Amino acid sequence: MDKRFEPSSYEGRWQRFWAEQGCFEVDPTSGRPAYCIMIPPPNVTGKLHMGHALQSTLQDLLTRWMRMKGCEALWLPGTDHAGIATQLMVERQLAEEGHSREEMGREKFLERMWSWKEQYQNNIQSQLQILGASCDWSRERFTLDEGLSQAVQEAFVRLWKEGLITRGEYMVNWSPVLGTAVSDLEVEMRTVEGKLYHLAYPIEGSEERIVVATTRPETMLGDTAVAMHPGDERYTHLKGKAAVLPLVGRRLPLIEDEAVDREFGTGLVKITPAHDPNDFEMGRRHDLPSVQVIGRRGRMTEEAGTFAGLDRFEARERVVAALDEAGLLVKVERHTHNVGHSQRGDEPIEPLVSTQWFLDVAGMAGRALEAVEEGDIELVPATWEKTWRHWLENIRPWCISRQLWWGHQIPAWYDADGRCYVAASRAEAEAQAGTAELNRDPDVLDTWFSSGLWPFSTLGWPEETDDLKAFYPTDVLVTGFDILFFWVARMAMFGLHFTDEVPFRRVHLTGLVRDAEGVKMSKTKGNVLDPADLVEDYGADALRFTLAILDTPGNDIPMDLERMAGYRAFGNKIWNATRFALSRVGDAQVQEDLSTDGLAPPERWILSRLHRAAEEVNEKLEIFRFDEACNRLYHFFWGELCDWYIELAKPSFFGDAVRPRVGEVLLTVLDRSLRLLHPVMPHLTEELWQRLPGRQAIHPLSIALAPFPEARGNWRSDEVEARMEGLMELVTRVRALRAELNVPPKEKVRLVLDLPEDPAGDRDSAAQGAFLMQQEALLESLLRAESVEAGEPPEGAVTDRIAGVRFGLVIPERELGEDERQRLAQELAKIDGEIANAEKRLSNEGFLAKAPPAVVEGSRQRLRELGARRAQVAATLGVD
Q1: Share of the chain above pLDDT 70, in %
Q2: pLDDT at 758 over 70
Q3: Are the beta carbons of 503 and 455 closer than 8 angstroms?
Q4: Which residues fall within 8 angstroms of residue 441, CB to CB, at 6 or more apart?
Q5: Does the pTM of the predicted model rise above 0.70?
Q6: Which of 150-159, 224-233, 290-299, 825-834 has the lowest mean pLDDT?
């Protein structure tokens, strides 16, 4: 076994081995309990980021854990076509080449899109594999593949027949950069420093002018009314009158509507039904005409008159200048307000009236809300339930059409008279229409529509496949909180609507991965970390362990590279411990059913601690406390197994204090410890486990398929644990004293245990003392002691008390060096100060009267200990 720990030497090898052996391919008809996690499909737009690495780590951890627990465990991989994002990237490429999609035509453009998909889907698969993803790659899906496309068509047609999908003219969020409508969830509200413009509108037939306030003066060209609150007494005299639209001359009736905010501006508001959601609704209520003055590319239309063709923001400046010149610009104020921006296009949304397809999801939302309230779906952490309720109770119809070419084209056709026929295929539409002269709707469905079907469309729905029967509903969804409503809620709604079952039973919502200072990662800040680079530098297992141990419920993950280096060192510790064990165990082999009969206390102790570790790790994984499970594994492996048990085993291996079956115990503990660690550090554990003699009896092929260790009640011994903890405290204290007194490592000392004369008076201390004397040979080896004796510590011995047992450490007389004499003199002065403070406290009548008896006794005990220590130091220095 190589002395050098180098993850790159074996991680790729085991990834290929698992794939070649088909370790992760599932059989839905095996009869074993089914367990399924669906990957949140990454977009085919490039490389995986740290958020993907976090979620993939946790999904893989759970899948490997449940596979080892005997389940037919499926982690189903796949990618999302990501309509807007992917088309935007390809169109940018085309623009750099001097071309456009309109120039290419739909068919050629889609060929280019599919080429992009093939390139980047393979990249994503390889990135997941270097992390150790135990997906069943034979079941990989893509949201535009044939099976999922059929599922999308089936779902759309059903919803249309049920009357839940409609097509009509409504106000939508329009992205001029993307050239498409986007949903409310794809609009990011940003606080901006803008301006509030106060404009004067003449009253028809009089010299009076009214003042309206707006943040978007360019839209005034599309005004068709001015509104006031019916209870606003300031404007009673204007009822029934009209204003004249400046720069245009259009007559604007003054209407009354309770939606008007009397406190905003002057209490009079301009109404532009074509460019504001509230105005659109008010326009409908009052049967107002709609004049669109801003087009789909963010430029002014012919309706804008002399401003036609201008960009909307340039038009704003020109309109304001024209109003100022006409003496109709009353004032301009600085104004902070919220403006919706397109998440993908990164520009202010333009509210536009557009003919779109809408899905009424109110009923589905009610069922999804009920599923969480009744516990059919568990959100982890539960703090998200309040947000879930708020969003679902206030849900609006979902605009599901997008003016793109990349995506699921809406299955609707139109005849020459504009009649619409929705069908799963063109042939069905022609049969409905009675003619082949049909034109298909050019729009595609919102990406989240197909993603909403993901948990069951990927398993073969609407067909009753073996996969669907075995793995649906799925067990766990692991995803970021930021797509709780983009995706998780929509899956819940669609799952309940189409299958009458929840799509998953539990949802673990992770935080965001940030940099070490807690700052959100971004390219502009230069703090983005690439998972592939981290794997190259630290190894996949160190990255996985870091992400898992930092995942605490409801919190973001600060990505500290120093901690990752520490967890790489953890892997090195395990490597060296295994290497040492294999060099010393001789003919011993792993034992699956190891009896504790005849074992010495150190062996019984490590088995009892292993029992507890297995119990706690299983418990923590059940409740998604990955941080606590990993902490338990870390402290067991590093502290209890490596730092303690291997040290306790060395005297037996080197012949100083031979005990029975130490090799068997060490190998068995290593076997089960590696299996406990496997789900989070799969490569290292496979590399080391394959080397353990006798591991074939556990599983002939791979640790990934071996049973996950459960608690072993017959290994547990509270008594042995307590006694061994006392022994370890003694060893730790004596080693510390040797260091304090500068006793050279090879210099022998004597340990004298002051056993109680009357064991009945203090049974626990007596039992601990007797136990320590039984471990005489072990203590001599661990402490470099020439003897361990029972008796009264001689004068001059350094004494202390551990686990209720007083002991004395006898150090051979030797001449003190000047440095050591100075150190001891400083310690003596410090002790004298502490003794003075303790005596002062105990002479205070107020303290003695008010303090609890236990506190008073503790102070007296501390004074006694200080006195004993002072005597030791003074004796060593040869002073009083």
Answers
A1: 99
A2: no
A3: yes
A4: 409, 410, 412, 413, 414
A5: yes
A6: 825-834
